[in-house]
Amino acid sequence: MTVVSNVTCPVCGSLCDDIELVVENNRIVKVRNACAVGEAKFLGFADPHHRRVKPLIRKNGELVEASLDEAIRRSAEILAEACYPLLYGWSSTSTEAIRVGLELAEEVGGVADNTSTVCHGPSILSIQNVGIPTCTLGQIRHRADLVIYWGSNPWNAHPRHLERYTTFTEGRFQKSIWIRYLTKLQGLIGRKKAERAAELVSPRKEAMPQTEKVEGLPPPLKAEERKMIVVDVRKTRSAEIADYFLQVKPNMDYELLQAFRMAIHDRELDVDEVAGVPVELIEEVADVMLKCRFGMLFFGLGLTMTSAKIRNIDAAISLVRELNERTKFTIMPMRGHFNVTGANVVFTWQTGYPYAVDFSQGFPRYNPGETSAVDILARGDLDAALIVASDPVPHFPKKAVENLVKNPLIVIDPQVTPTSFMADVVIPSAFVGIETGGTAYRMDHVPLPLKKVVEPPETCLPDEVILRRILKEVRRLKGMRTA
Amino acid sequence: MAKLKVTLLTGRTINQGTGKEYGKFSEKYMESVAVCQIDPEDMKKLGVKEGKNVKVTTKFGSVVLKAEKSLRAPHPHVVFVPYGPWANALIGPCTNSLGMPTFKGVPAEIEPSEEKVPVLSELLQQQFRKR
To answer: Does residue A331 contact residue A133 with C-beta atoms inside 8 Å?
Structure first.
């Protein structure tokens, strides 16, 4: 039995690097410090029900087992023959593999796009428009006395974000708000119990509303304590921790952000409410923002995936920029996959652009909306696809998936996924961060090493090695063609 | 039969996160994502009990899901479906020239349904029959 410590968790963009794993006979038997999702991955990744170990090739409509050489040869043939292949995924593999993937995309004259195209793509476009005042998560942990989560639910999507970097962490200059939260929670449980008892005593009466509306503003907070604000379209578990929760109407974040920009400049809002939030509350929260010493606005897909998309982010960054005239304020997108930031970084240093890079003209071209994966798929422009460490079939709009599965499809993924189910060639790889090492970038652009903890099955090579072999074979085939 | 016009939100949940790690074809994954969280008051209006099925329809498609009472109501006329193949059957491909489809805040309609929730392989077969 060996204990491997300081393992980086290959799940979300928080990239917690304090995980401890107990390994016995090449199996992870115990996980310490990880969240529920991280633990599920470390303990369940090798489950034979969803782990593939043998390559597959579709023959006569059926996926049949094949040798690795055969699968690599077939993949190279598909890519070498294609005029406009899409090479998509990349966010759940190492930066080393992404680098080879981009070389392959250039070689075959295809389009390389990563999953940020359907998560923080609009944020990247907006950052390119207006810039971004940001910092690392360590700064937030030690110094931020105001943390805002806008359109983001860290308790569910980045479960240890609160505990490691913000509200529940003991920073050097900022204390955790655990005690305040526990007291609040006890009060909430007490009230629920009382409600339940009242219901039992008089069940015929109209049931009390599930969540009682709190009249007026929350009680005054101590100036020196860290505060938390959540803005979301529905009450989430993260919202329950917050000192202020602002329930914005769906698709109206832009209006609320602009109202905040007015409020911090002391302009009068001549209405009773904006986007469902009372003006009185907006003014109070704007005051909290202005009075903080170091504020942080984390924003999630609630801003990028709703109707105003890029304009929401423009408004959020502008709000933070204007707050910086009065105090210190920063902003950061909550990145999803563990190496989606790394994908943007590698794409940028290799091609000059962070995602949606088209090599079809022999040089990198970038025009999201035209060269981005969903648009190419929806138009049906592609004639082959290579998916690496991603599962677009269940996560892309139906119309886009129809065109993806209509064309030859190669999947490199350690897991059995809906995309691999629809593929023509499936090459199982080693789990990055568990069975093979590499580098990943945390959401604040800090690179962290991923560890190899257990040996992969013999037939499962790292993504980087598989991609190199495909690239070599593509070059051989192309050489044969030109010779 | 009662119908309700709603706004559809899709998003992550911790169960979706753990469910996907148990395998996308697993029962656990389906239980965590083939659901529709509805405001309890809206459920009353629809005459749907928790655990019964509802059909969610948008301009782009429709899918049958298991109704779940929202734990943190009120959010009238707003329903939530976790990310996954079931939610995606309802999303349109328009990206407003940004590369990003609208995954949240989509106008939808819900109604009670007697049909069963399709398992993943059925859903994939129904939607994208592979040659």
So the answer is: yes
